[in-house]
């Protein structure tokens, strides 16, 4: 079985992508709403990823 | 006097299990399977790709599969049982991986930890897909 070593960013990016796709599909009723909500979730994930990353960097000194 | 036929509140609130059982079972066993069964192929394909890729990334990162065992404290037991339920929710992916011996022991390291979270989240996403299948099958959603 192959072994994959992803960085934290790569793992978080893929996690955000897959989760956003499923959340967009399952929570909304029309295709435009699904696309919009999926993109919104993905944006929020990335914002949190970079935001919390910077907070930790700045907090660490 | 004209008669109108309307479903009773009991019928409207509790749709027959015949309408949703098979699609929800298919959705559990094969991610997106319920959507395919209900002729929602596009959504089914996206769910299939997302859940399967997430599960395989977790497997290839050597993530741990939880087993339902009691731990030394309440929190460990909760994590073991909760993790097992989430892993099991991935359906055939989890069953086949366990049967063919791809379940990994718990290893230290960040990548293994990401893998464990990917495996658990694949199951949780499949639960969302199962709920969506139920809503489509019972007519609550198109």
What does this structure look like?
- The complex is a heterodimer of chains A (61) and B (142).
- With 61 residues, chain A is mainly α.
- Chain A contains two helices and no strands.
- Chain B has seven helices and no strands.
- In chain B, helix 2 (17-29) packs antiparallel against helix 7 (110-137) and helix 5 crosses helix 7 (110-137).
- The relative contact order of chain B is 0.19.
- The interface between A and B is medium-sized, with 20 and 27 residues.
Oligomer type: heterodimer
Order of helix and strand elements from N to C terminus of chain A:
HH
Strand content of chain A: under 5%
Instruction: Work out the number of β strands of chain A.
Output: 0
**Ends of chain A: how far apart?**
41 Å
Most extensive chain-chain interface: A-B, 20 and 27 residues
Instruction: Give the radius of gyration of chain B.
Output: 19 Å
Number of helices of chain A: 2
Major β-sheet profile of chain A: none
Share of helix of chain A, binned? over 70%
Cα shape of chain B: globular
The total count of helices of chain B amounts to: 7
By DSSP, the count of extended strands of chain B is 0
Strand content of chain B: under 5%
Order of helices and strands of chain B: HHHHHHH
Radius of gyration of chain A, rounded? 15 Å
Average predicted confidence as pLDDT of chain B = 88
Give the integer mean of the pLDDT values of chain A: 93
Helix content of chain B: 55-70%
Which blocks of ≥5 consecutive residues of chain B have pLDDT under 50? 4-11
Distance between the termini of chain B: 34 Å
